[in-house]
Amino acid sequence: MKITYYGHSCFSVFAGGKNLLFDPFITPNELASAINVDLLKADYIFVSHGHFDHITDVVRIASNTGAMVLGNWEIYQWLNKQGLQKTHPINPGGKFFFDFGFVKSFAAVHSSSFPDGSYAGIPCGFAFDTPDGNFYYSGDTGLTLDMKLVPEWVELDFAVLPIGDGLTMGVEDAIKACEMLKVNKMIGVHYDTFGFIKIDHQKTLEVFKSAGIDAHLMGIGTTIDI
Questions:
Q1: Do residues 128 and 102 make contact, with C-beta atoms less than 8 angstroms apart?
Q2: What is the pLDDT of residues 43-80, one digit of tens each?
Q3: Rounded to whole angstroms, how far apart are CA atoms 63 and 57?
């Protein structure tokens, strides 16, 4: 699978012949200023929750690409009100089959509201089973024992986890999450964008390595194969 990082918690995975894009927050992110949001490819867009730093560019990218956008019921309704017609609801516990494979939603432990402050439903994470491999994106979350449920549905090749601490898991909890998810490969997201989630990259990689986890802190705009 090819994974491309666009900063903060926005990344894409090319799997099952489709471009899967997650939590697009690019245009307001100074660290991602070199990314042209209008050139992004997306067949599906997954939105983990309603916070501005995960949803800002959804409508723009979906309008450009014709991508189907998925999120919980409240996000689904909000997207429809924004004028998008190619949308699909998926709440925690739900599983749907698409042309790339299947996706199952899991609850995340976080808050969630739309930019206007209104309720945005339950935050979610997503597990994917595709012909090219399987992975889990937790969305913004604290460590939760529910992560033990994910491997019962999908045997994972890697996980994408927040590591910035403060508002989500930090490194120590991400290591415990990897243990629960039964993975030894991890891509870190949700760090450095704001002052209160900046991390020491070298120290972070050393801590993951000492725990036997192959961790990736990707440069914005870079692509790796897993």
A1: yes
A2: 999 999 999 999 999 999 999 999 999 999 999 999 99
A3: 10
Label residue 41 exposed, middle or buried (CB < 10 Å: 0-12, 13-18, 19+). Answer: middle
**What's the pTM value of the predicted model, to 2 decimals?**
0.97
Please name which of 100, 41, 46 lies closest in space to residue 69, comparing C-alpha atoms. Answer: 46
Q: Whole-angstrom Cα distance, residue 127 to residue 1?
A: 15
CA neighbours within 13 Å on the CB side: how many for 15?
28
The DSSP bridge pattern shows strands 95-98 and 44-46 to be unpaired
Domain 2-225 has CATH 3.40.50.150: no
β-pairing verdict for 44-46 and 68-71:
parallel
